[in-house]
Every structure is written in C-alpha cells, then in structure tokens.
C-alpha cells in the first residue's frame, strides 16, 4: 500500500477536476510567466485563471520547489 499524498500535491486531483487542465499544463503556464515571486504567481493564477487561493498557492509552491530542488 502506498502512503497518502501530502503537501501541495494533495490538491492536484481537485485542481484538475475543478479547472479542467492537467497539472503539467499549469506548471508550464507558471514556468512561462514572467512573474517570479510566490505571491505574484498566486495572484496571477487567481485573477487570470479564476483559481482559488489554496489551489493557486499549492501549484505555485510545488512548482517553485521543483525549480529549486527542495
């Protein structure tokens, strides 16, 4: 049996279901954005894509952590 997913990735199934795009696509959009700050990216996802704060925060946190290797 596998351990349940924790942290930001635990939001991924509901993000895909609610917003209709795979996580890889969201990560590509975040990576292509000229914005670099965590909260700048969160605000952008909320205003431009109608994403809720928790979902936007989880995506940005996970994507930025991958970039920095954390």
Task: Tell me what you see in this structure.
The protein has helices at about 10-20, 25-30, 40-50, 55-70. It is mostly helical. Helix 3 packs across helix 4.
Shape: globular
Using the CA coordinates, give the radius of gyration. Answer: 12 Å
Structural class: mainly alpha
Could you spell the SSE succession in H and E letters? HHHH
DSSP E strands, number: 0
Sketch the major β-sheet: none
Features:
single chain, 70 residues, mainly alpha, 66% helix, globular
Compile the SSE list and pairings.
Elements: H1 12-19, H2 23-32, H3 38-49, H4 53-68
In short:
The protein is mostly helical and 70 residues long. It has helices at residues 12-19, 23-32, 38-49, 53-68.
């Amino acid at each position: 049996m596998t351990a349940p997913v924790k942290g930001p990735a635990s939001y991924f199934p509901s993000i895909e279901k609610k917003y209709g795009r795979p996580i890889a696509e969201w990560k590509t959009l975040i990576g292509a954005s000229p914005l670099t700050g965590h909260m700048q990216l969160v605000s952008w996802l909320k205003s431009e894509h109608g994403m809720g704060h928790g979902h936007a925060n989880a995506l940005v946190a996970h994507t930025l952590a991958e970039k920095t290797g954390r």
